[in-house]
# Entry
Amino acid sequence: MLLEKDIDLVLLDMDGTLLDLHYDSYFWMELVPEQYANIHRTSLEQATEIVFSECKKVSGTLSWYCYDYWTNTLGLDIHQLQHQCKDKIQWREDTLWFLKTLKELNKKIVILTNAHPSGIKLKDQQTQLLSYVDLVISSHEIGHAKESQGFWSAVKKQLNTDFSRSVFIDDSEKILVAAESAGVEHLMGINKPDSKKPAQLMQGFSSICQFNEFF
Ligand SMILES: [Mg+2]
# Structure
């Protein structure tokens, strides 16, 4: 695939693709269990177990990504709590360069994310992310997670495209599979979504660590 020649529409995941997943990993795996333990007076071990088992129940569904769902389920104000570690919200290494290059090449840039609108707002405040793209579509507006075909048929309609001149980049192999089923012509994985964790090779898709490998 040649970006200059074969692609008009670039579809991009946000967390773990454009932004360092470290913020989200830290937030959900450390800060949320810690706060749960404080508020509900349990040990950190117990709190971690409860949070993880609740996560398992809704993995891959819209609830998994919904701050209102977690605020109710865990009795913690997730909308407030997300601000506590907002200094960890960072671009991945060469994202800004990539977004500017895409703009110079006159590509249409659309973020497709499972992030809750409240999280998108905070991440935009920290990075001005939205000023670099044409549009953001959150699965919460559509009512289906990116893992589901309902999401992709709604996006297809909204963008008025058949995805034949599109590339979609995401750090989740499961979501790449869903995009492939929906007919997105070109797919690419991110194999180092979290700067603090080792790279993860993808089984079924080509994957890159930095965007400059794309060219
Ligand atoms: Mg992601």
User: Anything to note?
Assistant: The chain has two domains: 3-20+90-214, 23-87.
